[in-house]
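Quick one, probably user error.
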């Protein structure tokens, strides 16, 4: 910190010994050592706080660059999706231009869809359910919940046979 050599420290020690005396010199040396230690700790705290502030400022600048890059990516992705949707819609209109007259002339298409304004809609079943009854029976989908007692009674072996 200071540019003091051994000879200068010796001169300062001799002058302090003469001025303060041998009784007070150890106490004053201890007090000066404590004050120098506190000053060094305070300087280290100030340096670390300045470093933290600089790192925080760097992180904020990085955050802003990452956010701007993310916004750029989001805008380009949204733009590309819009272009693809537009191209798909135009291709869909071209592909279904000849089919719309044919689809309206038939009563029920074979795939279960009705083409109306170029939007596929599912036909309603007569039962009001989307899954056919034969499939539900085959897949063993229960439509009614049974209580525990009803389940036991249903699966109990019959004794009269």
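Nope, works fine. Designed sequence:
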């Amino acid at each position: 910190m200071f540019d003091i050599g051994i000879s200068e420290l010796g001169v300062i020690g001799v002058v302090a010994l003469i001025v303060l005396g041998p009784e007070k010199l150890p106490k004053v040396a201890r007090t000066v050592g404590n004050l120098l230690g506190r000053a060094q700790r305070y300087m280290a705290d100030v340096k670390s706080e300045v470093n933290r502030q600089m790192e925080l400022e760097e992180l904020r600048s990085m955050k802003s660059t990452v956010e701007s890059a993310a916004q750029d990516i989001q805008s380009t992705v949204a733009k590309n999706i819009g272009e693809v949707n537009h191209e798909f819609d135009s291709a869909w209109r071209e592909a279904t231009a000849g089919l719309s007259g044919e689809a309206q002339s038939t009563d029920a298409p074979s795939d279960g869809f009705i083409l109306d304004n170029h939007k596929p809609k599912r036909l309603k079943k007569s039962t009001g359910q989307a899954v056919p009854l034969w499939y539900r029976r085959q897949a063993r989908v229960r439509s009614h919940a049974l209580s525990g007692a009803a389940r036991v009674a249903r699966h109990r072996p019959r004794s009269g046979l």
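Helices lie at 6-20, 25-96, 99-105, 133-138, 148-155.
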